[in-house]
Inverse folding.
């Protein structure tokens, strides 16, 4: 929108200025994350950063549906798993490179998200949340028993040599770092575009008050479907990248119910329905979870889970608007 | 497939279904009262099972005799969870729905970690009780006594839960459910009702756990499976309806047994989930749910 053509009100100017500012901050963070791994030699830390950024992206994809449109999905592992399985099976069985396969995976995940949404969006509140848990669980059980997709054994991704086309790298973790960074940046840009678009306003209206939204001629069901499609697509792409990064997938690693929570948590604890929430939430949660597991989780002690669970309780009770509220960032008014 | 096998499946489906029903009833009670879904419900079941294991190991009390003790412990636990976490989650002004969901999720992870810390990852059970390894046979169908006793206790617990509705406290509970703001005006302490509701919900799942332990293994992760089934049962029966939980629990148990018999045991849960989704299409509020 060009502010000089339209007779802008002061409020519009303020919004445009804030949005331009967000782009600048986003660019700076992107730059910072791009140089972050360069001085780090330790493989463990590099891996931790990659996983954190990947989950920031996945959680931002969740945020599109859960945050901006207010539909609390607890079954996003299904879309992540489908993305991962589609790209992996295309690569292993048909030789399609994952650079193409991940978009195919995202597309299939988006279609599945629409198919899930079609019946489930008739439900609201807890009914919707539980229906998504169940749908995710069905997907997990079906893949666990489906021989074509490797059933419980899963699928190994054979190494065909270093390649940006096949997204396989053994000698360095750096290419994966830039891959997940590009993914997370793409989800951030999508969220940024949605915030300023007509769609974003409709979705937030659906989230805040369905009846009021409908009275303002917001088409509720299509809004939810659009949000689910976009969210499912990016979650699927993230799943494909994850599969390529790990080199092996099975239902437990990419479809299990606890992953759905792992995807939703950074957005919820960071600040649901905000641009920075998923990033901030992932930056806190993933390192706490990983570091406590590697230092305290040895021998199945369970202390790591107690710390992680305690942190989730504490943050959600003390900062209901998410960690971003510590930084004075406000959720955009709907 | 013989008729015997079918009858056997139907009976074991019914016996398991009653356990599912009781686990779900605790969840439904809390939901109906204050619109809160307890995502740590499976972990409460796990705690009750561990409590039974510990009490049996320390003082050798048979699980059936332990029932009142485990119930009191679980009541206290539910009460404490309400006072410590849920009351706070209900008092936030922003984002209440999500805070409630994820605070109880955090609690679930915490309890799982605590159980892992205290008991390790091993599977434990109680063996050598009065009823173990005994079966009765009825018209060619064999019924293990522990399961039979568990079902009887579950039915008794349901009868008690339905009786609670007729007491003074039950009326206060019902009034709070109807309009949680209005009850404050007529001198009902809403916070106390909620805390007792949590205590009752936890005690209910405590009964189920205590009976379950004589024929089912407990490990720190046992809750997850039962919890998903409990959500399905509650959603199928209708949130907040005790009778709905009973009927839905039996349906779920039977569907599970029949799917295992007709398809494949590893797919037994797919059948119940499919039934749940089908019912949801036709009747989104569940079988006995009120709007």
């Amino acid at each position: 929108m060009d502010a000089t053509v339209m007779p802008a009100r002061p409020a519009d100017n303020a919004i445009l200025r804030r949005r331009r500012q967000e782009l600048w901050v986003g660019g700076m963070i992107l730059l910072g994350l791009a140089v972050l791994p360069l001085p780090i030699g330790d493989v463990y830390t590099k891996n931790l950063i990659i996983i954190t950024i990947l989950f920031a992206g996945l959680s931002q994809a969740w945020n599109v549906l859960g945050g901006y449109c207010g539909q609390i999905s607890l079954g996003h592992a299904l879309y992540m798993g489908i993305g991962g399985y589609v790209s992996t099976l295309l690569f292993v069985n048909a030789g399609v490179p994952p650079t193409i396969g991940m978009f195919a995976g995202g597309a299939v995940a988006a279609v599945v998200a629409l198919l899930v949404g079609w019946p489930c969006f008739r439900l609201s509140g807890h009914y919707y949340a539980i229906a998504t848990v169940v749908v995710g669980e069905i997907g997990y059980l079906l893949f666990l028993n489906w021989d074509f997709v490797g059933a419980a054994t899963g699928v190994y991704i054979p190494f065909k040599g270093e390649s940006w086309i096949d997204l396989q790298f053994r000698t360095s973790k750096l290419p994966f770092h830039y891959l997940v960074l590009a993914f997370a940046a793409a989800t951030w840009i999508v969220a940024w575009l949605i915030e300023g678009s007509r769609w974003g306003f409709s979705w937030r209206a659906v989230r805040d008050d369905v009846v009021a939204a409908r009275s303002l001629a917001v088409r509720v069901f299509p809004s939810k479907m659009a949000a689910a499609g976009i969210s499912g697509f990016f979650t699927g792409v993230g799943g494909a990248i994850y599969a390529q990064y790990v080199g092996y997938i099975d239902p437990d690693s990419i479809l299990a119910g606890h992953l759905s929570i792992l995807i939703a948590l950074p957005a919820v604890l960071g600040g649901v329905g905000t641009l920075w929430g998923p990033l901030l939430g992932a930056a806190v949660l993933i390192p706490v979870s990983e570091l406590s597991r590697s230092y305290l989780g040895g021998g199945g002690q369970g202390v790591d889970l107690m710390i992680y669970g305690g942190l989730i309780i504490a943050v959600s009770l003390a900062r209901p608007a998410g960690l971003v509220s510590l930084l004075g960032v406000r959720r955009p008014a709907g | 497939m013989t008729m015997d096998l079918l009858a056997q499946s139907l009976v074991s489906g019914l016996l398991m279904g009653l356990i599912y029903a009781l686990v779900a009833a605790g969840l439904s009670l809390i939901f109906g009262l204050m619109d809160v879904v307890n995502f740590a419900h499976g972990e409460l079941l796990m705690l009750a099972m561990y409590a039974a294991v510990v009490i049996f190991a320390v003082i050798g009390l048979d699980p059936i005799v332990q029932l009142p003790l485990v119930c009191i412990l679980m009541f206290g636990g539910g009460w404490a969870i309400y006072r410590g976490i849920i009351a706070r989650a209900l008092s936030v002004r922003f984002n209440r729905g999500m805070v409630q969901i994820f605070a109880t999720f955090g609690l679930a992870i915490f309890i799982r970690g605590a159980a892992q810390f205290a008991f390790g990852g091993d599977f434990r059970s109680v063996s050598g009780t009065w009823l173990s390894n005994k079966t009765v046979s009825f018209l060619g169908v064999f019924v293990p006594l522990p399961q039979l006793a568990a079902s009887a206790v579950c039915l008794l617990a349901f009868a008690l839960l339905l009786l609670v509705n007729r007491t003074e406290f039950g009326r206060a509970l019902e009034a709070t459910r109807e309009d949680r703001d209005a009850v404050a005006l007529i001198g009902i302490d809403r916070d106390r009702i909620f805390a007792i509701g949590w205590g009752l919900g936890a005690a209910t799942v405590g009964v189920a756990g205590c009976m379950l332990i004589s024929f089912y293994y407990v490990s720190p992760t046992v809750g997850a499976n039962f919890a998903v089934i409990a959500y399905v049962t509650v959603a199928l029966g209708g949130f907040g309806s005790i009778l709905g939980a009973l009927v839905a629990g039996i349906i779920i148990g039977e569907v599970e047994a029949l799917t295992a018999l007709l398809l494949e045991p590893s797919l037994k849960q797919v059948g119940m989930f499919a039934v749940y989704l089908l019912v949801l299409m036709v009747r989104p509020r569940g079988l006995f749910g009120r709007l």
